[in-house]
Amino acid sequence: MSAPNRSRRRLGALVVTSSLIVSGLAVALAAAPADAASTDVVITEVYGGGGNSGAPYTNDFIELTNNGTAPIDVSGWSVQYASAAGSSWQVTNLTGSIAPGAAYLVQEGAGAGNGQPMPAPDATGSILMSASAGKVALVTTQTALSCGTTACHNAPEVKDFVGYGLTASDSETAPAPGLSNTTSATRKVPTQDADDNAAEFAAVNPSPKTLTSTPPDPDPVDAKIHDIQGAAHLSPLNGKPVKNVTGVVTAKSTNGFWFQDPQPDNDPATSEGVFVFTSSAPTVAVGDALTVQGTVAEFRPGGSGTDNLTTTEITNPTITVTGAAPVPAPTIVGTGGRVPPSTVIDDDSNGDVETTSTAFDPASDGLDFWESLEGMWLGIDKPEVTGPTSSFRELSVVPAGSSVRTVRGGILLQKTDSNPERVLLDDVLTPIPDAKTGDTLAGVVAGVLDYSFGNFKFLPTQTPTVIDGGVKRETTKASSPLQVSVATFNVENLDPSDGPAKFDGLAHAVVDNLASPDILGLEEVQDNDGATNSGETDARMTLDLLVAAIQKAGGPKYDYRQIDPVNNKEGGEPGGNIRVAFMYRTDKPVKFVDRPGGTSTAATTIVTDRFGKPHLSYSPGRVDPANLAWDATRVPLAGEFTWHGQSLFVVVNHFSSKGGDDPLWGRTQPPVQVTAPKRHQQAQSVRGFVDQILAKDKGANVIVLGDLNDFDWSETADILVGSGKTSLIDMPRTLPVKERYSYVFEGNSQILDQILISRNLQPASTYDVVHMNAEFPDQISDHDPQVVQVIPLPSWVH
User: Fold this and answer.
1) Do residues 94 and 141 lie in contact, with contact meaning Cβ atoms separated by under 8 Å?
2) Global pTM?
3) Dihedrals φ, ψ of 181, to 5°?
4) Distance between CA atoms of residues 503 and 549, nearest Å
5) pLDDT tens, residue by residue, 315-353
6) d(Cα 252, Cα 79) in Å, to the nearest integer?
7) Residue (of 83, 16, 72, 76) closest to 48 by Cα position
8) Do 783 and 476 contact (CB within 8 A), yes or no?
9) Spatial separation of the C-alpha atoms in residues 63 and 103, rounded to whole Å
10) What confidence category does residue 584 fall into, taking pLDDT thresholds of 50, 70 and 90?
11) How many C-beta atoms surround the C-beta of residue 35 within 10 A?
12) Backbone region of residue 343 per phi and psi (left: phi > 0; alpha: psi in -120 to 50; beta: other values)
């Protein structure tokens, strides 16, 4: 709306309070034609929920549009905000111009950090606007308004004005609808301005810099919850208003509630429960019978840029309590109820499941199975724990009788089985207790099914009782006098600031659980000041503390070898400079062969002695550090040892992590492992180094070990194994399937750490993954260590 129109409205308002003659003038003015569509800049969208819980964007914003045919210079203008009942205006200055038909985005303050980043703004302020009700003005000056609480929409310097929410004290004609964390006040037709906020604005999903005409709101349709959920990942009523949706409240959260239809349809593919988003704490009680009117929406946790599935909600609800009713009995998941698929998460999509899935089949696809129960009141009878309670207070469980289990009660991740029966308990509604792999939860655990952070989440309403499954931390047997024992252990970002408790815990693990191995390959050793980004790279203090702690725990004296990395170039926590390292006993026949010259950038090579036997040019020495495969990743460390005079080459590794891969339960199916190609390159680099040793002596004693961040059945492991007479033995593959794991992620037991040995070492070898960390909530590391015991022999014996 233009300023002259506002002047006429002010005149009319003045005349109404004057004499009868002037009142006649007011009648004449009222009969004049209505204001035409603005030919100038207008406010087209206002959003105040940015960054809040459930918000699709990180920031509040105000969007302007130029409806004219020429550019409009807004330099010297401002957008201003006041609270719903306030008279104090906050100012964000504007600069530049707005092209004809173009949108101009003003980014304002951020909330708690939820949502996706904003499109590039044209102006930036820091105003924290109300998510529900407030006032926004487009002003042709940069001076804060001083027009009070009710008259600012008529101020001559005000170009356009939007009051939103019923409590807004000022607006054009009447306020726009009240908003929430997930809705903005958006002009239905961007090119029209009739000075009526109520009629011209709708509460819809925020869409900064996206100008589309919104038709008038359709009349709400009668719907049941199963109509809203539908047999699909997206509601068939998404974006549509619904009414007379009936059900009984089953659970409440801080910003909404779940309710369920006690009269289900006959289709198990359609959920009978749904979440009602109230933005603030709901006033209903569990057991209330309700009728709800609102708008169906698909909420994607983390925003549209994430790989998360959506959850179906009813937003902007009008809620009528019609009485009290018994909460429906929980739908049982497992034997005697809805039995989840046992191997397949999804097998009929090629990309985004919401657009490429060719079938919705809860009977065979785990993704569809859990989707068909979204929002419902469920129960699992005596759920079995497959992984420890995490730091996020999540606990993985499966119904009794689920598929391939580990020897200690976990559930094994396999190449063709991602365990779709697995679901995570989360502490949204009640505390989740500490539990470990192999435990059981008592009775029927009841709750509602939600989704967040790439996983379906089962939200109990009462803290479950844990029944101890009796799983204990393992210990390995000491090696024989003829065997050298070689172990790998990820010590999880170890640095002096971790304190004595962690060092003592690791020391007891080395002494008591690993039987003080002769050689120990360590991963994730940090520098002396840990994650303090000081430029420090030396790790002698860290390793000295561990050496001392082992002696304090009754273990032997260890020495160590390592090479400081280039500062902040090899991944991990900024400033931490994690690296791999060797420790070895000084009281046993194992000797480290020192050959100086190894640096962070110098590659060790294979040289031969006068008998043609291979040795390392640098020991310790780094493997192929100039290879781009090691960019932002720990470079492997090679060491030459002797055992009773026989040479032993050991390479300790820490390959690139899986961070960035698609989640198993994400919208992209099949999940894409974007990090895998780099690990393949790293495996090729290490394999090439091993080949150089074996080319000089096919009977050389070689051990490759460490945290490879990949599975025993992966291409990474295949590359390291190689083929033919120089192939390595991947020791995890020698174990029974149910014992092949060293790590538990979201309840899936899996191999990430591996030891590979040259073929000549296998006949006299023993191998053990020592399960003492990954299955327990009180971990000193998130990885289980493992140890191989071998007898290095002279090459002529082979």
Assistant:
1) no
2) 0.78
3) -65, -20
4) 6
5) 989 999 999 999 999 999 999 999 999 999 999 999 999
6) 38
7) 83
8) no
9) 7
10) very high
11) 17
12) alpha
